[in-house]
Model the fold of this input.
Amino acid sequence: MLAKRNIGNLEVSAVSLGCMGISHAYGEASSKQDVAELLAKAIEVGYTMFDTAEVYGTADNPHHNEELLGELLKPYRNQIVIATKCGITFDKSFIGKGTMPLITDGSPNAIRESIEGSLQRLQTDHIDLYYQHRVDPKVKPETVAETMAELIKEGKILHWGVSEASEEYIRRAHKVCPITAVQMRYSMMARWHEALFPILEELNIGLVAFSPLANGLLSNSYKPDSQFDAKTDYRASMPQFKKESFEKNKALFDLINQLATEKEATPSQISLAWMLCKKPWIVPIPGTRKVTRLIENAGAAAIQLSADEVKNIDKALDEMEMSDVFGGSKIVK
Ligand SMILES: NC(=O)c1ccc[n+]([C@@H]2O[C@H](COP(=O)([O-])OP(=O)(O)OC[C@H]3O[C@@H](n4cnc5c(N)ncnc54)[C@H](OP(=O)(O)O)[C@@H]3O)[C@@H](O)[C@H]2O)c1
Done:
């Protein structure tokens, strides 16, 4: 059974499930039947945290992911942690004029409107972990934290967090209402948030690592000629999937493959085990739509890498050539 660990004071499965790709960013949405099987297997294997957002949708249904999870996770609701996100919303001035662009809106009104929508779509009376999806430069961290504190008092959320935020933002927000977790892009290819680790440790905030496989690349199951549909699959334009990147990332693949052989594991498991063994408060949320991979990724929690092994991997990563990787702003301490 998948081990558990704490992010802040919230206990979750050591590897948790990123649900975005079921609806969004990696091609056409999965069928309801496939998702039902996937989620049932996830529960059986021991996944307890399921990560979504109000904006993970399809061209036809901007809230597809939350709606589907709400329906399919309902039977398991009292055994699981549902994490969703507000603060990036659709620009409703575009209703009826085609695809609605996304805008950041961290205002109290926007957060309150979002929580009501998410509660309804997720068919629940509370969200276990509610994130501000992106910082809104127009709204102070204190204002967002005050709104989250009110939602906690009202029982609508149990914990809160923020995705892709700076040290200053985290400290100021945390002072008003303690943050349980930050969600950041973190993988062997995206390590810039390591600068925040001492602060997270000091404040007892967990790190939920998104895109921990560098959007799948670190699984080593893609080839220079892998094709992605540019209309529905963001990997078509991600730098790490460009043909020339495979050559640039050769040393990285060699390292992961060598460790996989040594540990009798798969490349994905090594990529996840590296961060799991680094800090006890890091929880990766790899996304997959396939039952076999869901089981494989959970297996990462059983792989032991010593502190020296982790240190040696970091040193090798520091020194090797790598391609660019898809990812928002590089936030440093
Ligand atoms: N806070 C934010 O701004 C933010 C941004 C992005 C993502 N997220 C969250 O983080 C989660 C994970 O991130 P992500 O989906 O972008 O990236 P990821 O987990 O690094 O990679 C997902 C991709 O890897 C493939 N994959 C997963 N396990 C595999 C395995 N064992 N072997 C081979 N391929 C494997 C999946 O394909 P298959 O589905 O075909 O298996 C999928 O295309 C999302 O679901 C979402 O919940 C948050």
